[in-house]
Amino acid sequence: MIISTTEKINGKEYEVLGLVKGSTVQSKNIGRDIMAGFKTMIGGEIVSYTQMMNEARALATKRMAEEAKTLGADAVLCFRYASSSVMAGAAEVIAYGTAVKFK
Known about the structure:
The protein is α+β, with helices and mostly antiparallel strands and 103 residues long. Helix content is 36%, strand content 41%. It contains 2 helices and 4 strands; from the N terminus they run ββααββ.
């Protein structure tokens, strides 16, 4: 599965199959919160949160690609991520794009 942020792939003609998306909601746990609280006192990257968000993006991307595959897509174009707070301590990450089939 080709996943690209561009609107087209040079040399390829395709038909648009439609919007595809994948998402996940991740929450913090008490251990991460305590360590993050200490880290905010001294500054710097909160590695456990960075890892959590990397895992969330990877899972959302995988789910989007699976949805595209069920449509018979060869690629997802105009790929993007978005995130939002769902509730206190929980955030959603969504991966979305346009599923296309090569001619």
